Amino acid sequence: MPFRDATVAWALAAHAVLAETATSYGHFITVNELAERVQETSGVQTEAPTRAWMDAILRKVARRCHRAGEPPLTALCVRQNHTVGDAYRYVLELAGLPIPDDLELHAAYARWQCHQHFGAGMPADGGIPPLTPKVAARRRMTTATATPAETAAQSAAAQQEVATLEEMAAQPTRERVCGECFIQLPASGVCHYC
User: What are residue 184's DSSP bridge partners?
Assistant: First the structure.
């Protein structure tokens, strides 16, 4: 199968896997786990290293989510150290947003939006943007060793970032419609009429 056709199959599978991941609050998936599931789901295998093709797949998924008005499912895909890394920056570029000082907090909020959008059982209080466990642990360690002035500065920056993200979330999202018949699309993004 040509690589271009393979990337289309992998991107469709990646969207489905990430949408499934979003249905459980607080869940996420690593790049390597996603690569395995994508190949398994699509039936298209490759011997190429994951790093050689997975960023292209995540970009395709990010573009699809952006066009469909969905929250960025790529926020659910993290590296082995549980950070989103540069692949997530593309989401911000698509939206025309500046790169925040705290990319991980931005991604945590995007994960929260994904969980909410795809029907995850949300906590009664609405929950908080879930940092991944390794990122949260690193922050706890950093906070424990920080001076009071550093802690206050970090807290103020985090509060500003959360306020910006909440403002973004308050903006109405447009309903996804088919480009051909203009009927509202189901969560799968596939028009059943065309």
Answer: 177
